[in-house]
Amino acid sequence: MARKRLATRSPAPADTPATRPRGPGRPRGIRAGEPLQDQLLEAALKLFARHGIAQTPLSAIAAEAGVTKAMIHYHFSTREKLLDVLIQERLLPLRNALIQGLAGHVDPIEALTAFARSLVAQARRYPWLPGLWLREVMSEGGLLRARMRAQLDATGERRTTALIEAWQRDGLISPALKPELVLMSVFGMTMLPLTVLGGAADAQAANAVAEHAVAMLRHGVREAAPGKRRQRA
User: Fold this and answer.
1) What pTM, to 2 d.p., does this model score?
2) How much is the average pLDDT of 210-222?
3) C-alpha dihedral sign at 125, 89, 77, 149
4) CATH code for position 205
5) Does residue 216 belong to any structural domain of this protein?
6) CA distance 156 to 178
7) What is the extent of the structural domain holding 149?
8) Which single residue of 12, 16, 65, 177 has CA 20 to 30 Å from 36?
């Protein structure tokens, strides 16, 4: 009686997707036509803004994206590597675009108004932005705070400070303002209310925050001439 030959197959490596059961179609959460790394970054940003970086393990990001933890390690070997990619591909381009937008306006009030509205618009586009900014960039001990400073090109900050100083020399804005704190103040007038009020998810609330910041800028930044100040009764 002839013996059947059993086909042998080499086992798949332990950390490859071949080792997990897979049903038909793509894994849950994966969106067709969008690079997986981008989807993983978005999942990480969402959880970081909600819970904080220190409280978000890679396994939670994998679960949010609908992939295995092995897939996270394939794209980002460590959380530190993920943070570096996040800064380079998400936060720094956003920061640079906002700073460059200031130079597109001749009038400083129009420039700062556009900056405030653009911040709110970006928060509407990226709902993770206000929470992440408050938790991890502005808070003492935030894990993105020192990491971003180490990777920042200070040229943009120096150029912005020089622009604000020029506005002051030309008498266009109050000389009492500290140039290095102006943009930080605009961030505070927009990101903090959006974080507290949850306005990034609500168009009406977000518009209210934007217009409040605009009113503060238009009526608080420009110093009125002494002869035009309204006298108290």
Assistant:
1) 0.72
2) 79
3) negative
4) 1.10.357.10
5) yes
6) 17
7) 88-222
8) 12
